[in-house]
Design goal:
The complex is a heterodimer of chains A (71) and B (262).
Chain A: E1 7-11, H1 21-25, E2 31-33, E3 39-41, H2 52-56, E4 62-66
Antiparallel strand pairs in A: 1-4, 2-3
Chain B: H1 21-35, E1 42-46, E2 61-64, H2 70-80, E3 85-91, H3 92-98, H4 100-109, E4 114-119, E5 122-123, E6 129-130, H5 154-161, E7 165-170, H6 174-186, E8 191-196, H7 200-206, H8 212-222, E9 223-225, H9 226-229, E10 241-248
Helix pairs in contact in B: 1-6, 3-4, 4-5
Classes of the chains: A alpha+beta (71), B alpha/beta (262).
């Protein structure tokens, strides 16, 4: 899909507390709490850039920006 | 988004995983940035409690003062230097129990400060005791069989005491929260925003409200917008909390004192 915008998800591992709020608020199931109870970005290609995770992250650990590079 | 007023060298913050305080802090930083205020002219005052740790993560001048005494300190700062924008970050216990009297009298005097209450329904820092805002039948450390006391309605309390801007919002509704924080900070006169936050570690765990994610998303079910609530009957609103702007009175100007009395 060439017309669809893609987004880069920056995650600061050091600040993240794996609380799972991003998993709960994401409308596209981009995040997951994995088997080791750690937050993981599993479907970054599904991100629609709605910023729900960024605004609801209590630890300032997420940042979503539009990917301008032609992949 | 760039957070120029965040002291990122102090992160990760001390709050528990899933604590709502960080979301309110983000909203506050964003509202200050969007209002374009001079960051050297902002003072953030806080008392004691989880929420009162928030100023430590901002680049503004801040005072961390006694339990419940944030509002008197803020009043003094505003009197000494009226050019400053003074914001009080406080918790539900800090503002309504220990500092309850200061809160209503600051509202009565219409001091030009903004009070942001991080309302998580219990005293989180000391182990989840009941606060004056704990809802009826909620389990806390001090009310193991369910709370039997009715909670304060902080909005009606401060509105009755004479506050000129009162709003309530929830952390799930970040746009709503940002909007009302901006209005409250820009407002001239006493303004209070009651932000419904969450404490998954104590309040959520004792009351079986699920994990942090479930708690935050459930706000969609039990917080009702004022415009929607106005059309509903009290029975339909049982157990729900109304959010929105409740009081917004433009500044009346300085109080008129009869001649010869000062």
């Amino acid at each position: 899909m060439p017309d669809r915008k893609t987004y880069k998800i920056a995650h600061v591992r050091k600040w993240c507390k794996d609380c799972g709020i991003c998993v709960a608020v994401c409308p596209r199931k981009v995040f997951e709490i994995d088997r080791n109870d750690r937050q993981a970005i599993v479907n970054p290609q599904d991100c629609i850039g709605c910023q729900m995770c960024v605004e609801h992250c209590p630890d300032f650990a997420l940042n979503v920006t539009e990917d301008k590079s032609d992949a | 988004m760039k957070m120029s007023n965040l002291r990122s060298e102090r992160l990760p913050n001390i709050w528990c995983p899933g604590c709502g305080n960080g979301i309110v802090l983000r909203s506050l930083l964003e509202s200050v940035e969007q209002l374009g205020l001079d960051t050297d002219k902002i003072v953030v005052v806080s008392g004691i409690g989880c929420s009162s740790r928030a100023p430590a993560y901002t680049n503004f001048d801040n005072v961390h003062t006694l339990h419940g005494r944030a509002i008197p300190v803020a009043t003094g700062i505003k009197l000494a230097n009226p050019d400053l924008t003074v914001i009080v970050l406080t918790g539900d216990g800090d503002s309504s129990a220990i500092g309850g009297n200061h809160l209503i009298h600051a509202a009565r005097r219409d001091v030009d400060i903004t009070v942001i209450v991080f309302n998580n329904f219990n005293y989180g820092m000391t182990g989840g005791q009941a606060s004056p805002l704990t809802p009826v039948a909620s389990v806390t450390t001090t009310t193991p069989g369910g709370n039997t006391d009715r909670p304060f309605d902080l909005v009606n309390l401060t509105a009755g005491a004479g506050a000129t801007y009162v709003a309530r919002t929830g952390i799930y509704f970040t746009k709503h929260m940002l909007d009302h924080l901006k209005k409250a900070i820009a407002h001239r006169g006493f303004s209070l925003v009651d932000v419904i936050a969450q404490c998954p570690t104590y309040f959520g765990r004792f009351n079986r409200k699920g994990d942090a994610g479930q708690m935050i998303v459930s706000q969609k079910d039990w917080l009702v917008l004022k415009s929607v609530a106005d059309k509903k009957s009290p029975q339909e609103l049982a157990g729900k909390i109304v959010i929105g702007e409740f009081v917004n009175i433009p500044p009346p100007g300085p109080a008129v004192v009869p001649e010869g009395q000062v």
